[in-house]
């Protein structure tokens, strides 16, 4: 069962409309005659439901369908799925739920809970969950979900192992969604059956999704099920039983970012989340972009209408080895100074630019980078995110996921009086016809 957000929009029609003026009274007149005859025949036959009444019913249905079809169009609004993370060790002031614009997103996914003794464990910040859920009072269509990941010694491995373990988990999820009035669960296991982990995890993960769906549907709570999934081809092949997942999940959040960041074994600058490959890339490298990953998921059997494309609201910073070589694929010697472990939020990037960094937009990949002295940052801004949002619409994907609201400019650092500029960019493009 998929949960589709449907919005009804009444089309405008103009008065006076000559056809309407003629047909409306004529229609009323004909219906009047029919009603009169119906009344007469049903009196004569002495029974209430005769053919005439059935005919009236038939006419009424057609009028109703015509009016619905003509004046009320069903619009499937694309999703804007926003991760909101409960921060701990990031050194700038945290975004608190009160600062979130309730109309910005269609879904807010709160991260991250863990799996402990096969049960979901929300941790110590229960009032943060409650405060985010309160946003639904302002925007009743907003869906608030919880994401469980495998940090904090979260034990997915043991939980998926057999049916009884999974059952304990599912019951604990149903308990928590009911208590906190949450709309669903997001699974963020990075990654089943990957590296040295046993290959049966791939099947067990798909099994977990199947069982969650079954129990969600029986629970009487209208719960949404999603999963954050990998973007690189090797992981997609190794970790996911795509057809089974596709059948039972509402949508997947494609983590189409972190394609490149500083690593010691490949220490060169490159893009966090390019839409397309760039001119220097050949072979395997041409698969490290949003367009490739999304289409690969489709090829493996995930319907486009269940794929939500991930957009990072952070960049990756590098320390340049030689400040005069600041192109893409320039040698780097470590994380940059901006951000935390190379993760730079959008307001931090804005400050970097305000301090004189040079921005270069690479047309091939539809993303910018910026550099100054030893510092080099790949990031997403309003132009790159506009490109991605338009691409999502024209390619028929379900919507955009942002990681994360915390990294957007929620306190007007980039331009005064404008909050959440990146997420708002997506919203503006999705609303436009
Ligand atoms: C981390 O896991 C422990 C149990 O292992 C739990 O008590 C704690 O609340 C968790 N912390 C967070 C932030 O989820
Ligand atoms: C599930 O696994 C646990 C731990 O390995 C074991 O104790 C339990 O008996 C298993 N349950 C079933 C139904 O196999
Ligand atoms: C349900 O969740 C609440 C809050 O997390 C917890 O205190 C309680 O023990 C859970 N109950 C069951 C039966 O799991
Ligand atoms: C995007 O992906 C599709 C399908 O893999 C491919 O045919 C197309 O060439 C790609 N576009 C670009 C610009 O790389
Ligand atoms: C990128 O595109 C813009 C606008 O289409 C153009 O002005 C610019 O010269 C292009 N840059 C490169 C490096 O091709
Ligand atoms: C937001 O920015 C203002 C002005 O720059 C600052 O005074 C305030 O502390 C910031 N608020 C938060 C919650 O960071
Ligand atoms: C920001 O908004 C305030 C209050 O609405 C207004 O007084 C101020 O001029 C605005 N600043 C800018 C730069 O638009």
**Termini separation (Å)?**
27 Å
Strand order of the largest sheet: 3-4-6-7-8-9-10-17
CATH architect. name of the largest domain? Alpha-Beta Barrel
Mean pLDDT: 90
What is the CATH superfamily classification of the largest domain?
Glycosidases
Domain unit count = 2
Global shape = globular
Quaternary organisation:
single chain
Ligand types: 2-acetamido-2-deoxy-beta-D-glucopyranose
Q: What's the number of helices?
A: 12
Structure description:
The chain is α/β, with parallel strands linked by helices and 433 residues long. The protein has two domains: 68 residues; 258 residues, Glycosidases (TIM Barrel), CATH 3.20.20.80. It is 37% helix and 21% strand. The strands form three sheets. Strands 3-4-6-7-8-9-10-17 form an eight-stranded parallel beta barrel, surrounded by six helices. Strands 11, 12, 13, 14, 15 and 16 form a six-stranded antiparallel β-sheet that branches. Strands 1-2 form a two-stranded antiparallel ribbon. The longest helix is centred in the first third of the chain and has 28 residues. The chain is globular, with a radius of gyration of 27 Å. One 2-acetamido-2-deoxy-beta-D-glucopyranose (NAG) binds next to helix 9. One 2-acetamido-2-deoxy-beta-D-glucopyranose binds next to strand 4. GO terms for molecular function: chitin binding; chitinase activity. It comes from Ceratosolen solmsi marchali. Belongs to the glycosyl hydrolase 18 family.
